[in-house]
């Protein structure tokens, strides 16, 4: 903005350009006077002189004068090497320049040219390192934005200083720059904490018809404005390490810049797509102040400052994208209002007249008027006539002077008439020529106007066609963008639906396979359960048949014994029966009682030959340490079994069968051993579970515990009588005890050996 010593920045170059262009055409000080409503009034020379005298007499600091010595702090910054100027400056106008300097801090507007003391960033400190409270300190008041009668935004109550040179304007800027809020951060030693706006107003008023004084008409005054805005850069708190007030300032700076970006984006969208969205100018004081520039009442230029450091890549990239977007926004330039009713070149004619008048005064030594000028012209005209003779009459009888005078006068009269006639003829011919020239010029002008109107119509038609085509192109591009976005959305939806369909199909396939597996499992379970219950029913029927047969057999035995007792002779009752010797037993087979016949109409009992299920299976043999050894001949033995004292998950994971050896005391005082068997299943949680399926019971009995009746040795048994099959050791050993797990019927008896019958 300010530049460096020897190389002026944007501000000194703009000021130098303005004053180089309007330097000789500036009005005297106080000829232009700004009002409080963003307008300008013009005063006559007398009022301006009185205003200057009044200001000179006031004790307040005077307006900086261009004749004073330049401050060495900025003397090198305003020495611009390129002296540029505007060539097309209207010389029939006078100009005046006014400057003001404001800042936007925390979304409040402050005047930097106020004369009130203001040091908010650097307060004074006493010896105790505490801030000094100054009773005379008046905090600055924020300014208000208003809208004038032309709907232009301006800052009310802002100090505006009239300047006459670049040095004077830059001195005013430097005075306000010292009051601007700056602070130290991790990234910048002098970081701007606010947006500053240096406003240059250029007043222009035309000269009167004589080209001497300013025209005293306010409607003819034109006021232009150039605002040089120094935007504070956006900050990231993780890099600047801002805290407290610095953090609040950074938040307001970023918010105002975000609002500016939003306004430009909406303007771009409205221009490209023909929409009419509302631009949020009022969300920030920065955008609200320059609302008219974006609405077509001005021209906007943006200069981007980029840091080439690699650490600032993200910030630089965002700034460049923002600048690229601003290039696509077009702001309509307002048409300049021409000054009508005044002849151009008034200043030059007045200046030439003054120069000629001063030259004449120098030559003649005194003033001349219009009559002398007209006499000199008439004298020059009369020099073309013949000279008059001497008109002096010396004698009464002189008859030559008068006739000569009459003759000369007649000649002059004739010459004058001839000249008058010739002049009239020349005037008439000139009028005719002028009329012909005017008619030819008018005809040519009409022809040219006709051609121009045709060309303009053609050009306007082509422009309208171009505008229509451009709008159509923009509309089609917008539609294409919408269609592309819609196609992308549809493609994404299609992919999602296809993926969902595949997932559903896979899920259905898994469910179907699970259903098939479940059906097969259920069928297996049904078949197994059916077979199990069939076996159970067969076992119960067989057990019941066996029980009934045993009861019938016992009754039959009792009847036989009773019959034998009744039919036995009395002498034989006293004799003691002999027990046959072993040799006789060997020679004569022992006759056994015939088993009772089966129950009529009863189904045959299906003998089950139980075998060990341990073949080809892995067992867990759980033998608690509290079990006692039985020392019996028959011991439960399972090959390839894992013997454990306590069941564990590790052992169960390796096997698919489980057997628990349990001992308890029976009612007769003998130890009864139960083998509780079950199947090992894997659970869903990854553990092991045991389902008990059956129980095998091993029990010892004394051979003398059951009463046994032997047959007499000396008499044959009666016909039809038979010894009890129950008393046979072989028969008793062929009976096993079996009980299913979960059965409520108790143990059932079943013969596993073929009963031996005696021969009749």
Give a structural overview:
- With 760 residues, the protein is an alpha+beta fold.
- The protein is built from 15 helices and 20 strands.
- A seven-stranded mixed beta sheet has the order 15-14-16-17-18-19-20. Strands 5, 6, 9, 12 and 13 form a five-stranded antiparallel beta sheet that branches.
- A hairpin with a 7-residue loop joins β19 and β20.
- The longest helix has 167 residues.
- The protein is elongated and about 250 Å long.
- The termini are far apart.
Our count of helices gives 15
Distance between the termini: 142 Å
Mean pLDDT across every amino acid position:
77
Ranges where pLDDT stays below 50 over 5 or more residues in a row are 62-67, 120-131, 133-137, 367-378, 571-615, 706-760
Q: Structural class, from secondary structure content? A: alpha+beta
Number of strands: 20
